[in-house]
Amino acid sequence: MKLYMKEKVFSWGDRFTVWDANGQEKYFVEGEVFSWGKKLHVYDRSGLEVAYIEQEVFSLLPRYCVFCGSEQIAEIRKEFTFLFPKYRIDGLDWEIEGSFMAHDYTITQHGRHIVTIRKEWMTWGDSYELDIAESADEIVALAVVLTIDCVTESSSGASVTISSN
Q: What is the pLDDT of residues 80-124, one digit of tens each?
């Protein structure tokens, strides 16, 4: 199943809309503007919060917690490296590989495909295509991809980055 995510360009804080393959709005993502650390809320069409992402403010390298409901399901950390960014996803046993700078990467679990992410270039605002293998992983995969975007942009001075296990 494919989801398409596009950042709203002229907005305070982070705002994304997520569409399905039929062009129907499926999720809305809103960041808190005046908060200590980055915080993102993911809402479904009915306005119900389905995921929440919160930056751990006092850590040496970027670190984010992903929640579904009141349960923390993952912690994403950027690992220390000299040349290329590397991330770790704790709690899901997911592995992440690819080019984070080009926003072209894949997340797997023991060789099983979870999601492939590709950034669409030459668009107004950040636009991404997410190819998710199973619908059961949809919300968690979306939250992890949003976190990686946060870590990547914060590292470049504009956004955020993510880690994997």
A: 777 777 788 899 989 888 876 666 889 999 999 999 998 876 555
What is the Cα–Cα distance from 165 to 110, expressed in whole angstroms?
11
Q: Does domain 2-155 have CATH number 2.40.110.10?
A: no
How many residues make up the chain in this entry? 165
pLDDT at 47: 94
DSSP 135: G
Burial of 112 (0-12, 13-18, 19+ CB in 10 A): exposed
67 with 75: CB under 8 angstroms? no
Instruction: Collapse the DSSP code of 97 into the 3-class scheme (helix H, G, I; strand E, B; otherwise coil) and give the result.
Output: strand
Domain ranges for the chain:
2-155
Helix/strand/coil for 153: helix
Predicted TM-score (pTM) of this structure: 0.81
Q: How far apart are CA 66 and CA 144, in angstroms?
A: 7
